[in-house]
Every structure is written in C-alpha cells, then in structure tokens.
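A reminder from the course coordinator: this example appears on the midterm review sheet, so study it carefully.

Given structure:
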C-alpha cells in the first residue's frame, strides 16, 4: 500500500508516529511523509493525484495538518482517523457538548473568550479546571481554586487568545487513567495527573474495568474514531471523561508500534466505504480488573466478547531520521 503521513514539527522526533512509519516501510509499504508548517507542499501533486491509499494525521490541535487532511477527504481519499471524527474531538468545547449530549459522563462545561468572564460561574462550582479549547498534551491546563484567582498570570508556555473551557474539578487521587483504543482493542494506562505533578505515579498498564471499557468504547461509537485515547478520572461518583484525543502516544500499550501499524493498514484497506458502518464495540485487550478474562463484564453488566489479538511482527527500531525530519 501507499500511505501519506502528515507530521508536524512537534512530533518530528516522536516515536509515535515515526516508528510506525518505519515499521510500515519494513513491511514493504510505501510511506510518504509531509511536514505541514515547515515545508512547501504541492497540493495538486499530493492530493489531487489521489495516488495514496490513505492519509494519516499526527499533528497538534489547531495545526495546519488538519486542513490538509480535510482537503484529502474532500477529494474522496481515505483518512485515518476519519477526518470528521478528528474535527469533533480537536475542539474540546464541541467534544464536551457532543459527549454529554449522548449521556457520557462529562462534567458541566463552560466556555468563554477571556478568563475574567469565567467569574460569572457560581462560586459553588469552584475549583475549576480551565484549559484552551484547542489545547493538546496537557498544555495550559490549570486548576483555579476561587474566582479571584482567574486573572493570575498564566504559566510560561501558556498561549493567549482563543476560546477557553472550564469544568468543575472532579476530586480524585491525583492519578489519571488513559484508555487507548487501537481499532477496537482497549488498553488502560495509569499516569500522573497534569494538575498534580508532585504526585508520584509510575506510568504503567493497569486492569480495565468493564464500566470504563464501556465508556471508552462508546466514545469511539459517538465520535467515529478508530485510533484514539480517552482521559478518565475515577471520581467519587464513578468514572468521568475529561479529554479525548485522536492518534495519541499509545504509551504502555504492548507492541504498540506493530499494533498501531497493523491497525493503520486495516483501516486503509477498509477505506471510506467502511466509515458508514456502525463501529464495533471496544474489546478489552489488556488485563481486566478483578481477575476477569478480557471482555468479561462484572456482575450485572452487558456481556462483551473479546476479539483475539493476532500475533504481529516485532516492531522495527529506529536507526535513522525519517527524510526531512532533522
């Protein structure tokens, strides 16, 4: 197959997706890499020729790569993930409305163009978690304890301008649960919350409960995503979804490079014709809490059937930079 990856500057040394690009090449597929934001791109040659089986995006929110991916989709080309699904989660305000509107456990969400406008939120809703609607990788996420602290100077690296969203803080242990979906297979990873950087948490794969698996699978169904991650907090009233992102890092996923590479090929072969079909429910591919077999629900839960994970070739380790990636 011939694939085109759109990779922005922030990820030019990142193993995800560069290791995936190398793996696909080692399997005999042709992979072209475009670097939006740092090189000239001939749209006529790259998109209108229609010579790629699929386009794959790994960019920051708000970056130019999404526009190029949308251009490819408008020409009838296959994209991984589906470009409409990516747009739905790149805007965190839109994602919160869509998710909450379908019954997913998402906090009440407020939006404002300026921090001072958030002072109209009732004091009982504080502390608030405030972040940019187009943020990514935990950038500019902050905890605001009281209304009078909304105008405190932003931390170094915070970006001014753009829509802000605010949600009431969900009390938790200081540990985030990141659930990754690799074309229907679900894996859970425990890691330190960006709001509690001093909390000592070793990032590791952890058991995936049936309840969390149902929520993560439902995210894929609602947004039409195939490769995605969901940030979940275990609050006093149960799991709460606080973020969704497309094509994440897949850290701690076993054989992540090989599995993601195989998923990209599967999705590319499926093509745009498979996008209209209802997505398959997610299967817990990692360990399940309480000693249950993968996919086995807890008492009273709707049953799910795990999909067997086929053996995959060992991923190729990087040996040299991808062309243009220096």
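Designed residues:
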């Amino acid at each position: 197959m011939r694939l085109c990856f759109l990779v922005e500057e922030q990820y030019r040394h990142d193993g995800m997706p560069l290791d995936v690009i190398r793996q696909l090449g080692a399997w005999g597929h042709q992979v072209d890499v475009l670097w939006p934001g740092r090189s000239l791109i001939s749209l006529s040659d790259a998109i209108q020729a229609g010579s790629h089986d699929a386009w794959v995006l790994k960019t920051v929110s708000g970056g130019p790569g999404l526009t190029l991916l949308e251009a490819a989709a408008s020409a009838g080309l296959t994209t991984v993930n589906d470009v409409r699904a990516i747009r739905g989660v790149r805007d965190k305000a839109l994602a919160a409305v869509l998710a909450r509107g379908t019954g997913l456990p998402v906090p009440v969400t407020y939006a404002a163009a300026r921090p001072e406008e958030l002072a109209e939120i009732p004091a009982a809703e504080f502390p608030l978690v405030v972040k940019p609607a187009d943020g990514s990788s935990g950038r500019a996420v902050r905890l605001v304890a009281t209304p009078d602290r909304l105008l405190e100077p932003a931390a170094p690296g915070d970006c001014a301008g753009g829509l802000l969203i605010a949600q009431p803080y969900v009390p938790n242990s200081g540990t985030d649960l990141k659930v990754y979906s690799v074309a229907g297979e679900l894996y859970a990873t425990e890691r330190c919350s960006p709001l509690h950087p001093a909390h000592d948490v070793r990032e590791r794969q952890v058991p995936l409960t049936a309840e969390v698996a149902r929520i993560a699978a439902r995210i894929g169904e609602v947004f039409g995503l195939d490769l995605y991650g969901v940030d979940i907090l275990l609050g006093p009233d149960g799991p709460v979804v606080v973020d969704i992102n497309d094509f994440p890092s897949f850290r701690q996923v076993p054989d992540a490079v090989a599995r993601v590479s195989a998923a990209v090929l599967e999705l590319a072969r499926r093509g745009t014709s498979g996008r209209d079909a209802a997505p398959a429910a997610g299967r817990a591919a990692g360990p399940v809490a309480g000693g249950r077999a993968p996919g086995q629900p807890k008492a009273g839960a709707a049953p799910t059937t795990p999909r067997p994970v086929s053996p995959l070739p060992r991923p190729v380790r990087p040996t040299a930079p991808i062309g243009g990636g220096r």
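DSSP finds seven helices and 14 strands in the chain. The first strand starts at residue 2 and ends at 7.
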